[in-house]
Amino acid sequence: MKIMHSLLLTALATLAPTALAQSAHAGHGRHAPAAHSAGTAAGTDDAALEAAFKRLDRDGDGFVTRQELPADHALLPHFGMSDADHDGRLDLGEFKHGMSML
């Protein structure tokens, strides 16, 4: 019985940090929950993503920067992962890829 108790405690001690880390993954508490359902690539076609990109590209340079994203945009916590060439801005392809991660 002591062995089963020890195994159970070990399993809980191992899994608890993982569960907590996943719940706080990439700042998912910092933006509106509706941002996920409204802006994910799974429910949005290419034309809608391109329209969203153009709307966010306020200066019309063909890129979206952190400053151009609204503070509660779901992509903001994932910006660094989406910026494949690390130039501090997202082109349309990087934007689409980033949105597909949500």
UniProtKB/TrEMBL annotation:
Keywords: Signal. The keyword Signal applies. InterPro entries: EF-hand-dom_pair, EF_Hand_1_Ca_BS, EF_hand_dom. It comes from the Bacteria. It holds the Pfam family EF-hand_6. Residues 44-79, 83-102 form the EF-hand domain. Residues 1-21 form the signal peptide. The keyword Cell cycle does not apply. PROSITE patterns: EF_HAND_1, EF_HAND_2. This is EF-hand domain-containing protein. It comes from Stenotrophomonas mori.
